[in-house]
Amino acid sequence: MQGFVCKAVRLIGGAALLMLASCAHVGPGSGEAAGAPGCRQETPEVFVLEGRITPALATCVAAAFQPTTREVILNSMGGDVASALDIAGQFEGRRLTMRVRGQCNSSCANYFLPLAGRIVVEPGALILLHGGVDPWTVERTRQQRPAGPDPTGSGGPGALAARQADFAAQNRIPPGWLLYREARSDGLVVKGLSRSLRPRGRSVLVEEPMLRSCLTGADIEPYQDDLRRRWLGSYRRLGLYLSRIEPSGATVCVPGA
Asked: What pLDDT, in 10s, does the model give residues 92-119?
């Protein structure tokens, strides 16, 4: 069950061309051939995690991550859900500073940022969401793929959805952050947000109001002014639109939803 909600997006701003990826991969093997996994203990207190999230990266983190770590530098386009949850297990309960350098998209944003005690979004960096493994995604995947044994060994999307639900409950992650949609819906209505976001096929650029309202347990360094300067001006906003990315604007998570 590989790559069922995995896509690349392209952002155009001025003369620069920035390639990002927004990926939630449901099975191993997503990009392992691209090279060695990107993780290292840079100093006793700083850990670096970069590149696509794969089983190899999860293995790297399990071997290299040290309990002295206080800060994790993230630069990831996302990737395999099961591997991201494995990595997140290393971060749970530590209230680490998480520093977004470049991008933290999809599984990186879904499962790592909610565990942070402090979040720093560096100048020019982006956080993109396009949803986790919710009942709507499971239903759609089962409709599109024939029944049979799961070749990835992950238990299939239903097992991943259950694992994500347990993780979200344990860490009090609101459904709005995971862009949670119920089965038998049209896929457009997200539970727990103040307004509908993410029309089918789009990703959400997380602005500061959404981040603060969804991840209330983290101290968040201000970054909205930088987003306005770099990404939300007229021609760059057009680049986001053409890349099928929707800024979250004033949308916030609704408590208790």
From this structure: 999 999 999 999 999 999 999 999 999 9
